Amino acid sequence: MKLAVWLRKFPFWSYVWFILGVLYFVIPLLATFEFSLTMERDVVGFKAYEKAFADPDFLETFGYSVFLAAMTIIVSIILIVPTAYWIRLRLPEARRIVEFITLLPFVIPAIILVFGLIRVYSSPLNIPFTEVTLVEPLTNFKFGTNVLIIGGYMVLGLPYMYRSVDTGMRTVDVRTLTEAAQSLGANWYVIIARVILPNIRTALLSGSLLTFAIVVGEVVLASFLGISAFGPYLFLLGQHRAYEPAALTFTTFLLTWAAMGIIQLITGGQEQVAGAH
Amino acid sequence: MTHLTLSNITKQFGDFAAVRDFNLEVAKGEFVSFLGPSGCGKTTTLRMIAGFETPTEGEITIEGKDITNKAPSQRNVGMVFQAYALFPNMTVAQNIGFGLRIRKEPEDAVKKRVAEMLALIHLEQRGNSYPYQLSGGQQQRVALARALAIRPEVLLLDEPLSALDAKIRVSLRAEIRAIQRELGITAIYVTHDQEEALSISDRIVVMYEGRVEQVGTPFEIYNFPQTAFVANFVGTLNTANAEVLEPVNGLIGMDGVQFVSAEDLKDRRKGDTVKFSVRPERFSFASEHNRKDNILDCTIENITFLGSVVRIQVLIGNTRFIMDTFNNPFLELPKIGSKAQITCSREAVLVLTGQTEEELRDSAHAERMSS
Fold first, then answer.
1. Does the CB of A180 have a partner CB in chain B at under 8 Å?
2. Mean pLDDT (whole number) for A240-259
3. Contact A206, A266 (CB under 8 A)
4. Which residues in chain B touch residue A180, judged by CB atoms under 8 angstroms apart?
5. CA–CA separation, A114 and A235 (whole Å)
6. Considering Cα of A197, then A202, then A204, then A205, what sign does the dihedral take?
7. What is the pLDDT of residues B201-239, one digit of tens each?
8. Measuring CA to CA, which residue among B99, B163, B170 is closest to residue B135?
9. Which residue of A has its CA nearest to B152?
10. Beta bridge partners of B215
11. From the CA of A158, how many Å to the nearest CA of chain B?
C-alpha cells in the first residue's frame, strides 16, 4: 500500500526527461573526451593534451584572448552599470527600449557586425569639409584593431552583461539605497562605487564569466580583423589536427563548468548579504 | 526660534497637485508628525524637505538658510526610511559610520561616534553583524543611529514603523521619542497611524488631499478638531446631522431630540442643517449625581467588552451612537433592549465644518462618475 502511494507520488516523467537531457549533452562530451585520449594507437593517455598545451601558439593566443576578455569586461562594466543604474533610478520608461537594443546582438550575426566595423573604421576620420585627418583608420594599426574588437566583443556580450546587471539591481532597492546614501552626504561616484557595485557583485561576476566564455571562443570577429586570438587558433587547428582540437574543446568545457561552479559558490554566500532588506 | 520653515510649498506632478500651499514653522527640538491617509501628500512634503523632490512653488529654510534647491547631500538632514535602507554589504558599524567617513572625519572620531550610537540604540554587541542577521526592529534602530550619527539639523522619518509588528511598533516609537528628546533634534515624522502620532508628537499636522486640515498639539487635534475630516480621522467619533433650533443658545435638534452645544452658532440661522459630533468617551450614564447639560433618552442596542473599555451602542431618536466607558468590575451595565439615560456636556457637542473622509471620498467618486 505504501509502495503504491510512493509510486503514485514519484515524479517518474520528470526523471525520464531529465535523464534524457543529461544524456543528450553528456554523451557527445564523453565521446569527445574519449577520442582525445586515443592519440597514440592502442594507448589511452593524455598525449593530445600534452601536445596542445606545449604549442607556443596556444599560450600566445589564449593569453591574448584572456587579455581581450578582461578589457571587454572592464569597459562593459564601466558602460553598462551606470546605464542600468540610471534607467532603474530615473528612466524606467526607457527600460523596454534598452532591453530591445540588448537583444539585437542575438539577431544580427557577427559577420554583419564585423563587416560594419571594417566598412566604417577602415577610412580615416577627417575634420568635415577638409583633408585634415584626426584619426587614422583603426584597421591600420594594432591598437586600433584592439579597440575595434573590444567594441565588437562588448556588443556580443551586451545581452548577457546588461541582463545580469539589471537582474542584480532588482534584488536590491536601488532607489531607497541611493536616497539613503544621498541623505548621508554621498555623491554619485561614492553611491555607485561603495553602495551599488558591492551589492551587485554576484551579477557582475555572472555577466563577466559569460562574457569571458564568449570572447575566448569567438572566431568571426577575430578572423576578419586579423587578430591572433584563441578562437581562430582553435578553428585552424581543427583544419589540420584531430586529437588536439578535441582535447582543447573538452578543456574549454571544463573551464566553463569551473566558471559556473565559482558563480554558484559565491552566489550561495552573497544572496544573504545582497538580499537583505 | 523657528528652526525649520516651509512657506507656501506646492508640488505639482503634471495636473495633479500633491501638496497645496503648505505652511509650517517648526521650533528647534520639536517633534512634529504629518498625519493623514495614503495619498494626502505627507511623504511628498517630507521628501521635499529631504531634497528628493523639488517644490513647484515655495521655500524651505533651516536656521534661516534657504535649502529649497540644494541637493540632498548638501542639506545635512538625516532620514529614516520605511524599508530601513541599510547597506547590505556593510556591517552595522560600517553603516553607522558611513556618513562620517563621507565627511572625511578622522577614523578615531568615527569609531568613537559609532560606539556612542551603538550604545544609544542598545546594540553594542552587534557592531560586526550584517543587516540580514538582525530583526526588523534592530534594523530600524540601526537606520536611526546611522541618520543621527552625522548630527543632522533635522531628522526625517518616513513611516519608519510600518513594516514592524504591533508590539515592536509601540516599544520602538517610545524609544525613538526618548532618543529625539535626549539629543534635542528637530524631527519630522510621517505616519498614517493616529495612535502613533498622538502618542509621540509635540504637534501634529493633519493632511488631506495635499492640504493642511489642522495643526495643533495632540490634545487640541483630538479634543478640538476644526474640520469634520480631522474629527473623523483622529479617534472614534459619532457624527450626525441636526437642525439649528436656537443659534444664540447653541441649541440643535435631531430626530426630535435636543442637543445643546457650546459652539458659536451665531452665523447660522434657525432651520439650517449642521453636522455635529460627540466623542464616545464624552458620554456617561446619567444619574442623580451625574447630570450634565445634555440628558438624552436612549435604547441600549449592543454592548461590547474591549478589555479596559466597554463600548455601548445606543439609539438616540433614530440615530445610532457609540458610548465608551472604562471597564469597572462594579459597573452595572443595562440590559440590551432596555431604556436608559446618558449625559454629556455642551462642550462635548462639536459642530463641524467641511466633510468627513468618507463623504469626501463619496463626493469625489460621484464627481468622477458624472464626468
1. yes
2. 83
3. no
4. 79, 81, 85-87, 143, 146
5. 18
6. positive
7. 999 999 999 999 999 999 999 988 888 889 888 888 898
8. B163
9. A184
10. B205
11. 26
**CA distance, residue A198 to nearest chain B CA (Å):** 6
Q: What does the DSSP 8-state code read for residue A245? A: H
User: What is the ipTM for the molecules in this complex?
Assistant: 0.81
The C-alpha atoms of residue A212 and residue A156 are separated, in whole angstroms, by 11
| B contact test, residue of A179, A183, A189, A204 with most B CBs within 10 A | A183
Is domain A61-261 in CATH 1.10.3720.10, yes or no?
yes
Put simply, the answer to whether B99 touches A184 (Cβ < 8 Å) is yes
Residue-wise pLDDT for B267-278, tens only, equals 888 888 888 889
Phi and psi, residue A91, nearest 5°:
-125, 60
Q: Whole-angstrom Cα distance, residue B125 to residue B118?
A: 8
B294-305, strands of its sheet edge to edge: B284-285, B339-344, B294-305, B309-316, B319-326
**What is the pLDDT averaged over residues A215-233?**
88
Kindly tell me if the per-residue pLDDT of B332 is higher than 50. Answer: yes
User: What is the chain B residue with the closest CA to A171?
Assistant: B88
CA angle in degrees (0–180, nearest 5) for B272-B273-B274: 115
Q: Which of B48, B95, B98, B144 to mutate to test the interface with A (most CBs of A within 10 A)?
A: B98
Interface touch B85/A275, C-beta < 8 Å? no
More confident residue, B357 or B66: B66
Number of cross-chain residue pairs from A and B with Cβ atoms under 8 Å apart: 82
Do A194 and A251 contact (CB within 8 A), yes or no?
no
Indicate the average pLDDT of chain B.
91
Do A202 and A266 form a contact (C-beta atoms < 8 A)? yes
What pLDDT band is residue A268 in, cutting at 50, 70 and 90?
low
Taking only Cα atoms into account, the Rg of chain B, rounded to an integer number of angstroms, comes to 25
Q: How would residue A267 be classed by pLDDT, with cut points 50, 70 and 90? A: low
Option in A179, A184, A199 nearest B89 (CB): A199
DSSP-based three-state secondary structure for A135: strand
User: Which residue among A173, A179, A184 places its CB closest to the CB of B52?
Assistant: A179
